[in-house]
Amino acid sequence: MTALRGTSAMIFETNRLILRPRTMDDFDDCIVMDKAPGVVDFIPGPWDEDGEHRAFVRTRINAHYSDGLGYWSVFAKSAPNTFMGWVLLIPEDGVGPDVEIGWRLHPDYWGNGFASEAALALVPHAFETLNLPRIVAGIDQRNHGSIGVARKIGMTCRSKPDRYDVYVIENPQRSDA
């Protein structure tokens, strides 16, 4: 994995993928992805109301996060102009203190390891660059695909408070994690 520093945000590269900061150029692709069958089945949000959905995505794209946090759009190196989805590192529930990792891909790209590869690119960034003590993910217990991604990137299930399991990976460099 290679991390390239730009003027304001990082671009990550893996063997097959390029992750670049998400911008309004990705807006329409995000909406199309969210409307694809199965994509938001296990994710609460305003997906059924077009105006609210568009406002939600616009707000998320335009949000300002602390240095090193945010959303990255995912593209294949073999098709660098074709939006595949996104990954994120943002404060959990918008306020922290923990930082959440997340991923969402268009179904055309499911089952090929792309989500795991993209999410895994953010783990060293979270621990080595940002020195976070841990990263977390809340995953619906029925979302077997995302549970698989969480496990592949080294996360373990820490609690099952309700329908959403909390997956965690601790920073191995920190004793307070």
Automatic annotation (TrEMBL):
PROSITE patterns: GNAT
Keyword S-adenosyl-L-methionine: no
InterPro entries reported in the protein's UniProt record: Acyl_CoA_acyltransferase, GNAT_dom, N-acetyltransferase
Gene3D superfamilies (alphabetical): 3.40.630.30
Domain N-acetyltransferase: 17-174
Keywords, alphabetical: Transferase
Alphabetized GO MF terms: acyltransferase activity, transferring groups other than amino-acyl groups
Protein's name according to its UniProt entry: GNAT family N-acetyltransferase
Source species of the chain: Thalassospira lohafexi
